[in-house]
Write a structure and sequence with these properties.
Length: 154
């Protein structure tokens, strides 16, 4: 580990895939469609989705009508759990820097920043759900078609 508190590529794919599945509102999304949308290889998406499935967060189905969908309501799926399913537990960090100039001795001038960043990221992941992400991943709404008389229809 390099000391940085970061989300890896697999974790990022998992978070984005869960957002897309939440926006799909129960409809299945194929692995190929996820890979295309996430600009990732189908193989990598399959690895991520298998980890999420083993954790009970998504369900996959094979075949022409197959694909993935959330295994539980989006409002009950917190991002911290998604990340843990793919990357494992997040270790506590005491330094944001890859290389400590202080070599661990003495008071760190960045300790307050480090603790604040750690607390904020962990808090966000613990309280944010897939439902919170759904709006960001929802397809843009289509404006109502104009009515022949010049008025829009709902």
């Amino acid at each position: 580990m390099d000391g940085h508190w970061r989300i890896g590529d697999m974790g990022a794919l998992a978070l984005h895939a869960v957002g897309l599945l939440a926006a799909a509102d129960g409809e299945r999304i194929s692995g190929a469609a996820l890979a295309a949308r996430l600009d990732a290889s189908a193989h990598t998406v399959r690895i991520v989705m298998n980890r999420l499935a083993r954790a009970g967060l998504v369900r996959g189905a094979r075949g022409a009508a197959g694909g993935y969908r959330l295994a539980k309501p989006a409002r009950r799926l917190v991002l911290a759990g998604v990340l843990a399913a793919v990357e494992g537990p997040r270790p506590e960090r005491d330094c944001l820097f890859a290389r400590r100039a202080c070599a661990g001795g003495g008071a760190c001038p960045f300790a307050a920043l480090t603790c604040d960043v750690e607390r904020r990221v962990r808090g966000y992941l613990a309280r944010t759900t897939a439902a919170d992400l759904a709006a960001a991943f929802a397809p843009p709404s289509v404006p109502a078609a104009p009515h022949p008389g010049g008025k829009s229809t709902p």
